[in-house]
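Q: what sequence does this backbone want?
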């Protein structure tokens, strides 16, 4: 990863400060360099990033790629899986896409390029994604315990300090708690569309797919947008079904092949 990322970072360093260099506010790498240049100019320091700075950029880029890649792609797979199991919800998704983007699925990409905000007119699709993330929350998180964060037992008793512990959010348990989520094992996109008076209405703060607060997922909006876009592009064009048996049939699970794959992994740099 470092080998792939380094040339891009070095190219950005070389361009920094040259006349005509512009920054794209929508890329992580440019946001970093823009801020770095502004700081140097304010302090009257030369634009000379040291090794620690470059290493920090590379580490952060890796975190973004790691945190943003499999989470998003797996949510796409789980959404399509759930839609394949629930034709009635798939029909509603398709109906929504027809209404917003017209009857021709192939026309949607051009329409979206011209009117990107139209993606916001797909609340049912968003409900499907949020319900998918409730049932398959892909990432958890933890925080460092401290004397300020104490635990109270339901039965009472003295509060217990969490200092010296790491606190894990337990998002899977939370997302399946029947007191918070009626019918927790049912895939019900309508939870996300009903009013407060409905028992299905989500209890505030109980959905933690991206966690909450100042440390929550920085890519939340991007991820939801990407997944919505993918669904708009594929939900009407393809029928999906799971095919594990077919997949298994075309795999070579012989010991000789497994040994070969292990060998490939060991020799890969
Ligand atoms: C469905 C997709 C995604 C899910 C479910 C997800 C979930 C999460 C969760 C639960 C956290 C922990 C937040 C906390 O500690 O409070 C997190 C952190 C983070 N996410 Fe996401 N995320 C997704 C997509 C993305 C994308 C697309 C990006 C970037 C392009 C991204 C970048 C990050 C970063 C940089 C962090 C912080 C890591 C750190 O604290 O070191 N995520 N994400």
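A:
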């Amino acid at each position: 990863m470092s080998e792939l990322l380094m040339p891009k970072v070095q190219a950005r360093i070389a361009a920094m400060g040259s006349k005509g260099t512009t920054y794209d506010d929508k890329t992580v790498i440019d946001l970093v360099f823009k801020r770095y240049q502004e700081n140097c100019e304010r302090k009257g320091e030369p634009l000379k990033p040291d090794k620690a700075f470059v290493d920090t950029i590379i580490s952060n880029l890796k975190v973004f790629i790691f945190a943003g890649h499999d989470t998003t792609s797996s949510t796409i797979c789980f959404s399509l899986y759930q839609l394949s199991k629930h034709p009635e919800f798939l029909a509603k998704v398709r109906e929504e896409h027809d209404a917003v983007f017209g009857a021709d699925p192939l026309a949607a990409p051009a329409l979206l390029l011209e009117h990107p905000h139209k993606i916001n007119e797909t609340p049912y699709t968003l409900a499907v994604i949020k319900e998918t993330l409730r049932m398959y929350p892909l990432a958890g998180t933890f925080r460092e315990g401290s004397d300020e964060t104490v635990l109270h037992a339901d039965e009472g008793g003295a509060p217990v300090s969490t200092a010296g512990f790491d606190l894990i959010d337990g998002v899977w348990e939370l997302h399946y708690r029947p007191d918070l989520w009626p019918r927790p094992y049912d895939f019900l996109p309508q939870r996300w569309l009903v009013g407060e008076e409905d028992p299905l209405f989500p209890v505030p703060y109980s959905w933690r797919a991206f966690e909450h607060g100042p440390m929550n997922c920085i890519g939340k909006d991007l991820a939801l947008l990407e997944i919505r876009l993918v669904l708009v592009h594929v939900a009407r064009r393809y029928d999906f079904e799971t095919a594990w048996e077919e997949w298994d049939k075309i795999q070579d699970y012989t010991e000789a092949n497994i040994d070969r794959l292990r060998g490939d992994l060991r020799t890969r740099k």
